[in-house]
Amino acid sequence: MRDLVLLVIIGWCFLQAFRRPWIGILCWTWISIMNPHQLTWQVKSLPVAAAIGGATLVGLFTTKDRRDFSLNRESITLILLMVWFTITLPFAMLWDGSFELYKRVMKIDLMVLVTMVLLYTRRHVMLFVWVNVISVGFYGVKGGMFTVATGGSYRVWGPDNTYIEGNNEMALAAVMVIPLMRFVQMQLHAKWAKGVMTFCMLMMAASALGSHSRGALLAIAAMGFVMWLRSKNKVVTGIGMMVAALVMLSFMPAEWWERMGTIKTYQEDGSAMGRINAWWMAWNLAKANFFGGGFFIWTASIFALYAPDPSDVHAAHSIYFQMLGEQGFIGLILFLTLFGFAWGSAKYLRVQGKRQAETQWLSDLGAMVQVSLVGYAVGGAFLSLSYWDLPYNMVVMVVLGRRWLARKAWLTEKPEPVIILPPWLAKRFKKKAVPQP
Predict the structure, then answer these.
(1) Which residue, 65, 184, 391, 411, has fewest beta-carbon neighbours within 10 Å?
(2) 372, 356, 371: which is closest to 405 by C-alpha?
(3) How far is the C-alpha of 92 from the C-alpha of 293, rounded, in Å?
(4) Coiled-coil annotation: which residues (predicted)?
(5) pLDDT at residue 69 above 70?
(6) pLDDT tens, position by position, 200-250
(7) Is the predicted pLDDT of residue 436 greater than 70, yes or no?
(8) CA Rg value for the chain
């Protein structure tokens, strides 16, 4: 049954992508982040992402909808990063594995650029945020309820065959989406809706803790501190955070506390020392190879050449050392520049959005994207998620927000409901639809 339902939804997305490619890009984002086809029996073997992506690219050049091909510092930096990936590819140490990963990364980055072209209204931005929230929130809320029900005795894992299938990766995804949920909550008006979103945020935090990820714990702590700094009532916010933390931590079993305790004694932990060994390997490789080693370097043959301990083979377990080892110092500089620009744009929105009521939502968006980027910067220091979609989607959010603000779109845009309904259903519920302020 789930296969049939998903096929119907994907079929609708496919057809809409030709006529209204902005819907196609939202569907592609949903499929790319959530990977709903991995939850089915038969559909998971179909190239659903390629189908939606291809239809969206066709619609990009045939649609009559508005498109914005203007460049900005974030899009230019991303293009330069893609060009650098292409330049370094011929120098890859292991060509076959590197080429397969290269194709995957370039597809993601291309669709990120297409997203910047197709989305432009406030409704588009809000829907894009919702898609990212729902895509990760589905697993995070479910994982949080599982953690509470089992007292944290079992680890929470992500969907198979995705960037976030591991417990650590799933934890960071949940952590990064919590601020986006808070942004969504700030735009809601109904008390029950705000309450539901509060529950979801608590379950996302519980899911991150239930993954037994030490990096996620550090990321939550860093994000919590930033959110506390940004809060208007620091006393109430601080007490609320402490109470929530104490309640959630009380569920965690003894083995969880033992694992978290190894943060202080990392020298005695084999996993932690293995990561440090991989970081030294990446550093040594980048110093010896200007173009890096390619997308596929975390193997015994390459560790034998550059690692302090050749027998201890690990993945990068760090967005910084992953980029350094695979793309060299130039790749790392471009990567850091991209997210540095995104941080600056988010700050711009946070400050400028406060100037008038119509743009307050942009201030909220900028503030919460900054909090998410803090989580990515801290948690990503211990995970190999340099190419995952969600951080780049946050870059898209602030780029779209700055464009909307620059053209004073609130003076010309008509208020539209966020939820997309079929025409026949939209007419029936037209009076009940709640327009955006």
Answers:
(1) 411
(2) 356
(3) 5
(4) none
(5) yes
(6) 999 999 898 888 888 878 888 888 888 888 777 878 888 888 887 787 777
(7) no
(8) 22
Tell me the torsion sign for CA atoms 95, 98, 104, 105: negative
Q: Residue 247 has what pLDDT?
A: 78
Question: Rounded distance, CA 181 to CA 81, Å?
Answer: 29
Name the percent of the chain lying above pLDDT 90.
60
Buried b (16+ CB within 10 A) or exposed e, 400-420: bbbbbbeeeebeebeeebbee
Judged against a pLDDT cut of 70, whether residue 270 lies above it is answered with: no
* pLDDT reading at 297 higher than 80: yes
Question: Tokens 């597809």 label which residue?
Answer: 107
In this predicted model, what pLDDT tens digit does every residue of 307-323 receive, in sequence order? 999 988 888 889 999 99
Taking alpha carbons only, the member of 210, 146, 215 closest to residue 176 is: 215
Question: In 307-388, where does DSSP find H-type helix?
Answer: 319-352, 360-379
Between CA 391 and CA 179 the distance in angstroms is 13
DSSP state of 121: S
Cα–Cα separations (whole angstroms), residue 4 to 37, 48, 167, 309: 11, 14, 29, 51
Q: Is the dihedral of CA 188, 191, 194, 196 positive or negative?
A: negative
| HEC secondary structure over 32-81 | HHHCHHHHCCCHHHCCHHHHHHHHHHHHHHHCCCCCCCCCCHHHHHHHHH
Lookup result for tokens 């503030």:
367
The dihedral sign for the CA sequence 147, 149, 154, 159: negative
Q: Is 184 exposed, middle or buried (0-12, 13-18, 19+ CB in 10 A)?
A: buried
| Averaged pLDDT score across all residues of the chain | 88
CB distance 60 to 117 below 8 Å: yes
Higher-confidence residue of 427 and 116: namely: 116
Q: What is the pTM of this model?
A: 0.89
